[in-house]
Design a protein that fits this description.
about 75% helix, Serine Threonine Protein Phosphatase 5, Tetratricopeptide repeat, disordered N terminus, mainly alpha
């Protein structure tokens, strides 16, 4: 406990804001640092991560380039960089970047499941199901006791519209541990098998501590299907989330506007997504 308190005391304001998942304040603090010293690598790193947390992957990319060489966030910085590359259509570069992490002897083996899961998501986003399965099988063979291995297999089977096979992996994974990734895929399973109300109740149990844009998008989709567009927009318009521009979050926002008859607002978002994140219109 004393060690954790000491870490909090010694952390910079930007690091504190990131730890407590307040990316807007982290970005503003880092920008102030950058205004004083344009060569501040740590400030670029904090801005890049903050922008990714806000779903602004396209805006984050230049800051990852300028942050190269910083010793801050040796794993997270590369993971967020890979996420930004994925969402901006540079999937092969994203996979290569994560592969470099796997080959780095300084990276703890315990981090490998998360890195491999990121590679699965990269290929899923690109619609390359077979490549995603290849990585998922590799994850399962190397880390058979990791709940994340089962969560990723379940996601892939849901992508393939095979909920029965997906449930087998969900059941196995949740027997090992119930974490954000296992519960996210379980909520998706409930939604896609026709139980959006149960999915909403399930997500609500663990949502507030979430830092994942994918879960926010899923929760908004569940709200849209279970209770309609006004409930979905009420979630997305909370102060904590209204600045989130993650592609899937924006897609749900656009769909909600569409259902409400706000065609101009919906068309504006669709146009932005098609120009900036065209892959978002592919499945999953």
């Amino acid at each position: 406990m004393m060690f954790l308190l000491l870490n909090v005391v010694l952390a910079s304001p930007g690091e504190m804001f990131l730890r407590f998942n307040i990316p807007q304040l982290a970005r503003e603090n880092a920008q102030a640092m950058l205004d004083k010293n344009p060569d501040n690598l740590a400030a670029h790193a904090q801005i890049a991560i903050s922008l990714c947390r806000l779903g602004r992957y396209n805006d984050a990319l230049p800051h990852f380039i300028f942050a190269q060489g910083t010793s801050l966030y040796p794993i997270r910085l590369h993971e967020y960089h890979a996420d930004a590359l994925r969402y901006t259509g540079k999937v092969e570069q994203a996979v290569d970047l994560r592969s470099e992490l796997l080959m780095d002897s300084k990276i703890p083996v315990g981090m490998h499941p998360r890195i491999l899961a990121g590679m699965v998501d990269d290929w899923r986003y690109a619609g390359k199901t077979q490549k995603a399965f290849d990585i998922a099988f590799r994850l399962m063979s190397k880390h058979p006791n990791a709940a994340l291995s089962y969560a990723m297999m379940a996601q892939l089977y849901l992508d393939m519209a095979d909920p029965q096979e997906a449930f087998f992996y969900i059941w196995r994974g949740r027997r090992k541990v119930q974490n954000t990734r296992t519960e996210e895929v379980y909520a998706r399973y409930l939604l896609e098998t026709g139980y959006p109300d149960l999915a909403e109740k399930h997500i609500r149990l663990f949502f507030e501590n979430n830092v994942r844009n994918s879960l926010l998008a899923l929760y908004a989709k569940v709200k849209l299907e279970a209770y309609g567009p006004k409930k979905a927009l009420a979630l997305l318009n909370r102060n904590k989330f209204k600045g989130n521009q993650s592609p899937r979050v924006l897609l749900i926002r656009a769909q909600s506007y569409d259902v409400l008859g706000k065609k101009d607002a919906a068309a504006e978002l669709y146009a932005f997504l098609k120009q900036t994140y065209p892959s978002i219109f592919q499945k999953p």
